[in-house]
Design goal:
By secondary structure, this protein is mainly alpha-helical. Among the domains are: about 35 residues, no CATH class; about 80 residues, no CATH class. Helix content is about 55%, strand content about 5%. It is built from ten helices and four strands. The strands form two sheets. It has a two-stranded antiparallel sheet. Strands 3-4 form a two-stranded antiparallel sheet. Helix 8 packs antiparallel against helix 10. The longest helix is centred in the first third of the chain and has 23 residues.
Length: about 190
Amino acid sequence: MYKNLLLCLFVVMLSLCLVGLSLANPPTPADKFKHADKNKDGVVDKKEMHTEKKWEQKQHSNVNTWWEKRADTNGDGKVDASEAAAWKKLEKERLDLNNDGVIDAKERRLSWRHARSRVNTALEKKYDANGDGWLEPAEVKEMLKDKYTLIKTHGKAKVDTALEAEYDTNGDGVIDAKEAEAMKQDTQ
């Protein structure tokens, strides 16, 4: 027991020392550009800066948010210009139901009614009737109705998909009966 306590104390002290060293030597502005200096001459020329900017843009263009996942229709993990333009058009025409210029929580929840959703989980695959890897609005509606029935029977249900997560307003990973009321309204 005493040895374990000493070992834990040693690990904690070592960790604190490493953190202290990293704080004592903060990155300099030059460190920020080390990645861009491809020929390692200590100078970032115009060509290297252009390459670095393209690399950064590519890193930032990965699909991360709910709308990017919906807008990425070709499934390449990025939203290209044509997909972004199509999404903005769809957003303006179909998603912003109250025309206030903002997609609120209810409008985001209802976005499945106007576009296909990519199958991401085993549960979603179960509802993909034609097996094309996409959930049509009718398939999503069926999945949400079944989840609502499960919640009404058991009082709550675990969130299994990103679509269901839109109804988990408190973010606890469980949809309770109160949260399920929005699901009921959205599937009628």
